[in-house]
Amino acid sequence: MSKTTQFLRRHQAVLAVAAAALVLAAAAAFEVLSRREPPARPVSGAVTNWGLSFQQEGQPPVANATGEYLAQFDSVYCMPTQEKVLYITFDAGFENGNTEKILDALKKHGVKATFFLVGNYFETQPDLVRRMVQEGHTVGNHTYSHPDMSKIADQESFRQELEKNEALYQQVTGEEMPKLYRPPQGKFCESNLQLAKALGYRTVFWSLAYVDWYENDQPTAQQAYDKLLPRVHPGAVVLLHSTSQTNGDILDELLGKWEEMGYTFGDLEGELTGEKEAFRLPDLQ
To answer: Rounded to the nearest 5 degrees, what angle is found at the Cα of 173, between the Cα atoms of 86 and 93?
Structure first.
């Protein structure tokens, strides 16, 4: 046998051994990975704009983060129930004359809502904030300056956006602020959810909303009903804006229509904190 032939055979043997080792290593790696549960993540990646896909009338929408994923961070977007209960929330960055009508409608129907307010609202509308609290509503934290919180990575800056509102709430009401937080514009990332949880907050998204926030381009009442009635579902966390004239005009009738559909209205803060009580508007006479 020539030296060339011997060399080729030895080389082939080495390659065969190496190939076998690679196959075994790949099999072992596959076995390890197959046993490991994949981490829960929002479908669209690390930084996400909150989004919903309504696929079946009367059923909760599919969101771009699952309830199981959000639950890791004490966060919700829809309450887990088959009962026909709704949780009404409002976002408010400023006041333009609609909130009193909204509060009147909520009082008429005995509905406890959650108002997520920014710092400007506490500073300019203390009387309305006090009325919200006196009439049994929850006032949650919508940050002090309404920034894109997904761009805030350090805990101190994140903390300041929430704690400034906490101080204003206590100044206006004399009480501690409830630990419910809604990210401005629904922009979030996993670190935001972790930071909010570390500060004792529950992050609240939503499972039903419509385009009501353009002050100078308000939907008609019928356009509002076309979105809010067929898409309603058990456990819905409803997002409305108190700056919407349409909402101010239709809320009394809208609540009545939902009641006709068999829905009642729940206490979001009570459900999330485990301190649920029968809600009754206080006698302010």
So the answer is: 60
